């Protein structure tokens, strides 16, 4: 009987090895069958090589199967496929499940790594532009809407509030008409000029409309808009994502991209995400500037998923000047954005280690009894943890306004109200106990400046170039002798392993008050970095090691000297 079981086990092992061999052979065949197809402007070949390049991106997508790649040389390409026969502007490049698009080629490269790059991840010396621009030149000019002190939008063309010159542009740059189940990469491209305003095609995601495992990386997404023009008879007339609308599945990501001058609005409903509306998607190491949604999320609306290590400047929405977060937002930096609720961030999810400064939430035309709330952050629910919010302004809650959730281990200083008050930094709705909602945080009133390494020396918004520079360079880390060192208390349900600068919590006999542990301060990193044998590494605020210094957003710089001593600091990369 024992001999029988030995033979049976041996047969099972043989069968398992044969099965593994079959899987490996099938994988090898699949890899061998994967193809690269090549595209150049004006070419007429079959796409089998650079010498035989095709002139049609869409033909090469259609000829490909999952795992194949389409390499596109420098130049400008117009969308090729009509999505709806009776809508003559409904053109797009239509994506195919698992087929990758790569740009940034001069037209001779033999590998993706051969592409000549610029300083930023999204910059390539050979720029590949997929452009939906058509007709008269577009005019992207920011201005305050007529009769408004806060609605910082775009110069509009007629009652439809469209950006001047965009009404004749094609509807989309990239489009997927089904769920993309396999990883579908879009990388190294500039996506420009779409105007997704045909509601019965899709009034959403001008540069990219897709669902599934889409991975958008190292792209520039510029001057796209989406607009719901009609009043729906079957549902809400809402618009989702001026540039990108991505209903993500596992693996969906937007990384190392640059978004500028994107716009989302709706005549009859609500707009969601001036640049991006994303569900269940990772958005990381991106930069957003001059993005507008007239209603929600000037740059990003996130539902589920994670938004991390991104930089936002000069964005506007009525709610969430830069971000409306219903997911996880961590390690982001927001400057100079505005709204009515949450000049920088409107949070109803989880938000940690964010820096918000120079933002605004108010409307003086509402009179002496009403106005905007949360110049930096409006917290509708969930916890704000380990964040720094300074030099913002609002009618109520110059730094943070709390209508739900808590603010924990945060530093909220030098914020201002329209009317002077010692409670300018944080305020709460009537139903909220402000003292209970502010946990181990430095808030009302402003603390003495000597407690901090390099605070700003003015309150509220900067009014000149020197103050604007001071805003960017300020450090709210605790100085030697600060009254907040070892003076804090732990908060139920919150367990931090590191502070906003990446230093260990807790460093002393007790947790420090505010966003920083005093151990983050020490000898200057530059001095250590000049020592023989010093080594520098970089990490995200979530402690993920990076293979190079990032070129945008916030990161932790760690310098280890020859003796193994390490000093860290939080750095802004621009």
List the helices and strands and how they pair.
Blueprint: H1 2-33, E1 36-39, H2 57-63, E2 69-73, E3 75-77, E4 81-82, E5 91-94, E6 100-105, E7 128-131, E8 142-144, E9 152-154, E10 156-157, E11 162-163, E12 174-187, E13 190-192, E14 195-196, H3 199-202, E15 208-217, E16 220-222, E17 225-228, E18 239-240, E19 244-248, E20 253-255, E21 258-266, E22 271-272, E23 276-279, E24 282-284, E25 287-293, E26 300-308, E27 311-313, E28 323-330, E29 333-335, E30 338-339, E31 345-347, E32 350-352, E33 355-357, E34 360-361, E35 377-379, E36 383-385, E37 388-390, E38 393-394, E39 400-402, E40 406-408, E41 411-413, E42 416-417, E43 426-428, H4 434-437, E44 438-439, E45 452-454, H5 465-473, E46 475-478, H6 525-529, E47 535-539, E48 545-546, E49 553-560, E50 566-573
Architecture overview:
The chain is mainly beta and 574 residues long. It has six helices and 50 strands. Strands 3, 7, 13, 14, 16, 17, 21, 25, 27, 29, 33, 37 and 41 form a 13-stranded parallel sheet that branches. Strands 15-19-23-26-24-20 form a six-stranded parallel beta barrel. Strands 30-34-38-42 form a four-stranded parallel sheet, with no helix packed on it.
């Amino acid at each position: 009987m024992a001999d029988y079981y030995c033979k049976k086990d041996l047969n099972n092992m043989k069968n398992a090895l044969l099965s593994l061999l079959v899987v490996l052979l099938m994988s090898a065949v699949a890899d061998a069958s994967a193809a690269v197809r090549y595209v150049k402007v004006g070419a007429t070949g079959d796409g089998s090589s650079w010498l035989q390049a095709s002139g049609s991106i869409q033909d090469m997508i259609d000829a490909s199967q999952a795992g194949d790649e389409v390499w596109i040389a420098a130049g400008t390409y117009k969308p090729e496929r009509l999505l709806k026969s009776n809508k003559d502007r409904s053109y797009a490049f239509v994506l195919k499940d698992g087929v990758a698009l790569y740009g940034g080629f001069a037209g001779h490269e033999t590998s993706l790594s051969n592409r000549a790059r610029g300083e930023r991840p999204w910059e390539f010396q050979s720029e590949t532009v997929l452009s939906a621009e058509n007709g008269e030149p577009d005019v992207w000019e920011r201005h305050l809407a007529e009769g408004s002190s806060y609605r910082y939008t775009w110069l509009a063309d007629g009652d439809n509030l469209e950006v001047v010159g965009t009404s004749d542009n094609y509807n989309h740059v990239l489009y997927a008409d089904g769920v993309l189940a396999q990883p579908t990469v879009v990388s190294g491209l500039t996506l420009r000029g779409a105007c997704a305003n045909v509601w019965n095609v899709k009034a959403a995601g001008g540069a990219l409309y897709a669902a599934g495992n889409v991975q958008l990386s190292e792209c520039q997404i510029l001057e796209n808009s989406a607009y719901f023009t009609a009043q729906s008879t079957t549902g809400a007339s809402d618009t989702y994502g001026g540039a990108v609308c991505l209903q993500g599945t596992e693996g969906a990501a937007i990384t190392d991209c640059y978004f500028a001058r994107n716009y989302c609005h709706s005549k009859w409903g609500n707009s969601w995400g001036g640049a991006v509306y994303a569900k269940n998607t990772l958005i990381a190491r991106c930069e957003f500037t001059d993005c507008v949604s007239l209603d929600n999320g000037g740059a990003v609306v996130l539902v589920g998923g994670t938004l991390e290590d991104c930089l936002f400047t000069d964005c506007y929405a009525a709610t969430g000047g830069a971000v409306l977060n219903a997911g996880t937002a961590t390690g982001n930096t927001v400057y100079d954005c505005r709204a009515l609720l949450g000049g920088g961030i409107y949070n109803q999810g989880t938000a940690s280690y964010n820096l918000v400064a120079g933002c605004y939430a108010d409307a003086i035309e509402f009179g002496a009894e009403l106005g905007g709330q949360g110049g930096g952050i409006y917290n509708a629910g969930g916890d704000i943890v380990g964040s720094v919010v300074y030099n913002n302004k609002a009618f109520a809650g110059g730094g943070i306004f709390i209508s739900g959730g808590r603010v924990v281990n945060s530093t909220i200083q030098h914020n201002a109200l329209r009317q002077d008050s010692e409670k300018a930094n944080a305020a709460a709705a009537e139903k909220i106990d402000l003292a209970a909602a502010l946990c181990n945080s430095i808030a009302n009133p402003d603390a003495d400046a000597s407690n901090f390494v390099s605070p700003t020396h003015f309150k509220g918004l900067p009014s000149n170039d020197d103050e604007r520079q001071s805003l960017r360079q300020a450090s709210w880390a605790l100085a030697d002798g600060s009254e907040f060192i070892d003076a804090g208390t732990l908060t139920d349900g919150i367990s931090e392993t590191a502070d906003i600068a990446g230093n260990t919590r807790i460093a002393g006999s007790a947790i420090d008050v505010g966003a920083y542990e005093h151990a983050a301060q020490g000898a200057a990193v530059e001095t250590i970095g000049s020592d023989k044998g010093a080594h520098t590494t970089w990490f995200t605020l979530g402690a993920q090691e990076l293979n190079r210094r990032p070129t945008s957003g916030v990161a932790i710089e760690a310098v280890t000297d020859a003796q193994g001593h390490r000093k860290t600091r939080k750095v802004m990369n621009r």
